[in-house]
Design brief:
heterodimer, A: alpha+beta, Rossmann fold, OB fold (Dihydrolipoamide Acetyltransferase, E2P), 6-stranded mixed sheet, 8 helices, 20 strands, B: mainly alpha, MetI-like fold, 2 domains, two-stranded parallel ribbon, globular
Chain lengths: 364, 567
């Protein structure tokens, strides 16, 4: 079956007075690996269940391949959902679990045997057909759940935090396997996770969801490098957020002032602030350059700080620095040959050009 | 079934003499009071005068039409009780587990009401209402000039037992149903399976363990039930046949033993037949997410309301009947009693108070013994590596499948005619025999409760106490005991509740009238129509005792009260 596309138009869902999902407009294209990323309780799973048909939206339209499916019950939507807890039927064997959907579709016996065999081979579970789910390891159960869904060749594959119940090493392996599988089949996939690393590594596009609304959507790089607001900046990776005011808007640039009367010139990417706006300056830990204040040559910003803690980690050194009345995180890569500062050392903080972003304050 | 082999991460404690000694003592106790009496019943039915093995007695058993009929009646009435109970219980359990509606608590309460009334008391009460000259038939004669023989023969037995035992199926099925993770059903819908098909392919198989457990319990209890047929004066079932043989012909009548063995075989066969499904019971607890609850409105809510009213009404019939009877001197051939009196209560509480006093003494003692035995067995199963644990578990589980009549016959055989050391008289002449019988009959339940409680206490909780300086005894007193005390008390309560209404072994083992407990008193009083009021008053006391016990169990078990009545 050809991979499907999903359109969410102005989707809203509330429980009582509480909106769990609101104003969601998304278009997931054919063959995409699209991720809903957000903290727990942000409404991302609800959104997934709305697509699968287990939750009725109070507002908006769900379209599968252009057709509105709000009134279509779950069993006729033909979208595959892999549950977070796998939801394998304990009274059925691995084979019967995987064959379940095919039997529902009245697929002839011979074809069922052949297709179940093929999909079990694909997820490397050949030989476990007669076992019960309880006799499998966590990773195997996860793959049975995946196989059970893949075998019906759904229009869209929905994955609800499928890796969250696995240990770190297995999670890493499964992530690669899942990605390979998805690319091989070319299946439209919607992936729900709260793990930003997972999202960045796997997705073609990400929708960052906070408090039931889509805060930002875009490719992983866009989201990481140009967070739409402080919520995204804080949620995706680590970020130092410095409150700032816009002094002057120039062509592609702004002059901003931060605490201590320090003025900085920052390049603009997408946001278009106007003079007088209060914004955040987002600085990733790896964008901070440390220098010895005694060595005036590198001085650029004039921000002075004191090392609170330092942790040498081989490929980089991590620092916590007290400056501007808050704690900065800095990460200095390739420490070989560079000075390593100790707790209590005075340093001066500089920001790598082009790695500093001006972001609006989150309205919420 | 409890199986020590499945208990994870048994701590590597050395096999010490202390645990070994405990094990030996337990073995000796269980052997003397469970295994040996049953084996001797079996031996007598299988040997001739010269102590040679023979099947002759069984051949004779099948030659006698009376016994063939009793066997067939026991089997078929057992199945009928299960069948009718299932018809009552299944729709109710689905409604209880899956829907939210007004009066749900009422229905839950109604479902446990039949359990607080001993079946033989219920039999008497139902006779007053549905019997030949009971309320309903008197009305029917008045209005239509006909009577319906609700309570005649096997029909009456099946009716009484169904009304009494259907909660076993109901409660067990509800537990199974509410343990089904909602995503398991959603996954089916996601793959295209819905409605009745979803119920058949996913929900039904997953609720089967609870349903089967309840059915099994119902079947075993039904064929084991001696009181109901005796009260209804229907004797052609295995249990009353065994009882009549031993009490009228004597302790040496081989036929009585053969009937006993036939009863055990029926119980064991049903246990084995159900085992396949019971072993699957583990998956009820594998995963769980809040089961989906639907709200009922409009017509559906009204239908449910009506059903609640009917069930509640039927469940309460015996209670109302027995309550009325307890306040009357004579009640016959009238719709309601004509005169009311407190005399019956005066009789049983002040004139002859020993029935009530004995019951409290015996059942509380049995409950305490059960807790001690159950906790020790659970400890050995979960926390020690003494060899023979599985065998110990097997013996302690046996009474589940051993009808009370059979155990009583075994006791009469084994403990009759010689002075028991420390007692001074034969055990069968002492009231201690009743305490022992109650203790052994209910041991499987307490072992289960204690085992479940101890299983909740992860070994690391004890290890961390020891790591912080508490020795084994201190660890037990400060950590383990407080954590398992709920389970221990619950186990004791189950033993107390069920012993209060135990009739089968009681009427065979009571040495003298003044040593009899309530159930025996009820049986005696009910023999004469003049004593029925006093018997009913005793019945009310029994209902109260069981209600208190059940209420306390609910308080301790909380929402999982149903698990108290699981196999």
């Amino acid at each position: 079956m050809q991979p499907g596309e999903v359109r969410l138009e102005q989707i809203g869902k509330r429980y009582g007075p509480q909106w769990v999902v609101r104003n969601v407009d998304l278009h997931i294209q054919r063959g995409e690996f699209f991720t809903f990323l957000g903290p727990s309780g942000c409404g991302k799973t609800t959104l997934l269940r709305i697509i699968a048909g287990f939750v009725q939206p109070d507002e908006g339209i769900v379209r599968l391949d252009g057709q509105a499916v709000n009134q279509v019950p779950p069993w006729r939507r033909h979208v595959g959902l892999v549950f977070q807890n796998y939801a394998l039927w304990p009274h059925l064997s691995v084979y019967e679990n995987v064959a379940f959907g095919l039997r529902e579709r009245k697929v002839p016996r011979g074809e069922i045997i052949q297709r179940v065999g093929a999909v079990l081979e694909q997820v490397e579970l050949k030989g476990t057909e007669t076992r019960r789910p309880s006799q499998l390891s966590g990773g195997q159960q996860q793959r049975v759940a995946l196989a059970r869904t893949l075998v019906i060749q759904p229009r869209v594959l929905l994955l609800d935090e499928p890796l969250s119940n696995l240990d770190a090493k297995l999670r890493h392996e499964m992530r690669l396997e899942l990605l390979k599988l998805q690319r091989d089949i070319g299946l439209t996939t919607i992936y729900v996770t709260h793990d930003q690393e997972e999202a960045l590594a796997m997705s073609t596009r990400i929708a960052v969801i906070g408090h039931g609304e889509v805060v930002q959507q875009g490719e992983p790089r866009e989201i990481y490098e140009q967070p739409a607001n402080d919520f995204v900046a804080a949620f995706i990776g680590q970020s130092n957020l410095i409150p700032a005011t816009i002094d002057q808007v120039l062509n592609q640039k702004v002059i901003i002032s931060i605490e201590g009367g320090i003025k900085l010139e920052v390049g603009l990417s997408s946001a278009t602030p106007s003079a007088g706006d209060t914004v955040y300056l987002s600085v990733r830990p790896e964008a901070i350059i440390l220098s010895d204040p005694a060595n005036q040559a590198c001085s650029s910003s004039g921000i002075k700080g004191k090392i609170l803690a330092s942790a040498y980690q081989g490929s980089f050194v991590e620092y916590q620095i007290a400056a501007l009345g808050k704690t900065f995180k800095a990460r200095v890569a390739n420490p070989r040959g560079k000075p390593v500062y100790r707790t209590g050392d005075q340093v001066e903080l500089g920001f790598a050009a082009g790695a500093v972003t001006v972001i609006p304050k989150n309205a919420g | 079934m409890i199986n020590a082999a499945t208990a994870k991460a048994a701590p590597r404690l050395p096999v010490d003499w202390w645990q070994g000694g405990l094990m030996a003592m337990l073995f000796a106790t269980l052997f003397a009071f469970i295994l040996y009496p049953i084996l001797s019943v079996l031996w007598i039915s299988l040997s001739d005068d010269q102590n040679n093995l023979t099947l002759l007695h069984f051949v004779n058993f099948f030659r006698r039409p009376l016994f063939r009929e009793a066997l067939w009646n026991s089997l078929s009435s057992g199945f009928m009780v299960v069948f009718f109970s299932a018809i009552l219980a299944l729709p109710l359990s689905y409604v209880l587990a899956r829907y939210e509606f007004h009066g749900k608590l009422l229905l839950q309460t109604a479902a446990t009401l039949p359990l607080v009334i001993p079946p033989f008391v219920g039999a008497v009460a139902l006779q007053l209402i549905l019997g030949r000259s009971g309320m309903v038939n008197l009305l029917l004669i008045d209005w239509f000039g006909i009577t319906i023989p609700f309570m005649e023969g096997l029909t009456g037995v099946v009716l009484v037992q169904t009304l009494h035992f259907f909660p076993f199926i109901l409660l067990n099925t509800v537990v199974s149903l509410s343990n089904i993770d909602s995503t398991l059903e959603e996954a089916a819908e996601n793959l295209g399976c819905h409605g009745f098909r979803r119920f058949r392919r996913v929900t039904l198989p997953l609720m089967l363990p609870g349903f089967i457990a309840g059915s099994l319990l119902t079947f075993i209890r039904a064929i084991d039930d001696l009181g109901t047929p005796l009260m209804l004066n229907y004797k052609n079932l295995l249990a009353p046949q065994a009882y009549l043989r031993i009490t009228t012909i004597g302790i040496d009548d081989v036929d009585g033993y053969v009937v006993c063995v036939a009863l055990v075989i029926l119980s064991l066969a049903s246990l084995l037949a159900a085992r396949k499904y019971l072993s699957l019971a583990e998956y009820a607890t594998v995963q769980r997410a809040a089961p989906a609850m639907q709200k009922l409105h409009g017509t559906a809510a009204m239908i449910v309301g009506l059903v609640i009213a009917i069930i509640l009404g039927i469940s309460l019939l015996p209670h109302i009947g027995i309550m009325l009877l307890s306040f009357t001197r004579v009640w016959s051939f009238t719709l309601l009693p004509t005169t009311y009196t407190l005399g019956n209560y005066n009789e049983i509480l002040f004139r002859v108070p020993h029935f009530v006093v004995n019951t409290l003494l015996y059942t509380l003692l049995a409950a305490a013994l059960d807790i001690i035995l159950g906790a020790t067995i659970a400890f050995l199963l979960l926390r020690s590596r003494v060899p023979g644990r599985n065998f110990l578990d097997a013996i302690a589980t046996m009474p589940l499948a051993i009808p009370g009549v059979v155990l009583a016959v075994g006791y009469l055989r084994v403990f009759h005619g010689w002075d028991f050391p420390g007692v001074g008289v034969p055990l069968t002449s002492s009231w201690l025999i009743l305490v022992i019988a109650y203790t052994m009959r209910r041991l499987p339940y307490t072992v289960r409760a204690c085992y479940a409680a101890l299983q909740q206490v992860h070994v690391s909780l004890e290890e961390s106490a020891q790591n912080l300086g508490a020795n084994r005894l201190r660890t037990f007193v400060r950590i383990t005991l407080p954590m398992i005390s709920g389970g221990l008390i619950a186990g004791g309560l189950i033993a107390f509740i069920t012993s209060c209404v135990e009739l089968a072994s009681t009427i065979m083992l009571v040495p003298r009238v003044e040593l009899g407990p309530i159930s025996y008193g009820i049986y005696l009083y009910m023999q004469s129509s003049l004593g029925r009021g006093a018997g009913a008053a005793l019945g009310v006391v029994a209902i109260l005792l069981v209600s208190i016990g059940t209420y306390l169990t609910h308080r301790i078990f909380g929402g999982r009260a149903g698990s108290a009545f699981r196999i």
